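Continuing the batch. This is chain 6 of the set; chains 1 through 5 are on the previous pages. Same settings as before, nothing changed between runs. Recording input and output for traceability.
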Amino acid sequence: MKNYLVAKNYTINDHTKWYDDRSNEVSLVENYTKMENILVESAKQHLVGLDDVIVHRGEAPHIREVFKIHFKEIYDLWKSEPCNILYCDLDVVFLKKAMFFDQYDFFAMFNFTDPTRTVDEHYGLTFDRFFNCGIRYYPHDMKQEVWDLGFEMLENWNPDRWDSEQVIYNNMLWSQDIAPQLFYRPDLAFQMLFEQPLHQNNTTFNRISIRDAAVVHVHGSRGSGNRLEIMKQLTNGEFQEEILLL
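Output for chain 6:
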């Protein structure tokens, strides 16, 4: 059975559909290509049991359309053969040995996002625990009914919400009725919300220091240039000091 790392790197024409308008962000496409290289190389070094890396490519009018397309691409791969899939956004870097494959027999995400709670009026859903979908695990024995729930919501896509895919994935996650203690692993999905990795607020949010993280999501949508530089620094072993920045 194959274990795949999957990512996406699409060419898009309209950069206004991100969380903010990124039309004027310097070197946006180039920065994400460099992030892709860091993601892939760091995963090859630290992701236990990895057999192959697949980066889906194509063209789409804007990033929200990519979300919809890639949902189906991951499903098609999952259906094509018995396989385990770890999906990561391009702005993810592996720093230490990380075990995902064959560790979970259910669809999983691993850490909160910001905000940690949300209400979605379009779908009529409230999440008291709202997890980040930048790192997702799809086991070979994931239940079809969880996929079906996602597809049902996909057909009723909310084009006005930036993180509509995250709402869908959270509904899939929590529909499985699994105790969060079984998949809450901030060390496998450290959310670097503040630009300085050692900032106390990063530690408080994740409940661990970045020094204890195996996988870090740097949130490139908050500025790809500086987040790319941080990914480079992390792979070089920086930010391991004991002193936290306030």
